[in-house]
Amino acid sequence: MIWQKCVQERARQSGFVVSALLPRKSGRLIEYGWTCETFADGRPIAAQDLPSLRAAICRFHDMTEALPQRPGFLSLEELLTGICGGDVDPCRMPEALIKACRSARRSGGAEGCCSWGSLTLTTS
Description:
By secondary structure, this protein is mostly helical.
């Protein structure tokens, strides 16, 4: 969860509204598999407004490039040769699909940045 806190802070610094992890009185961020976060109010962003996020997304990518990879997960570059990491297990895929995915990743350039999951785009 420390990793997630760092990513959330970089997202805030990039201009995104991001919920914050709330520690228990003990200081722990996870208790019995549960986390607590502040509520971030918002609404889905309109498709025509997506281009306005480009600068913030680029700042976020730049600010997370030096962060370590999410613990237990492989980076995009490591997935080019690695067996599995996090929720990605190429061993469960047909060999032809593994080769096609790795070829597509190589041709697109495996740039380094943290793996934060997907961006949920909303506006407040």
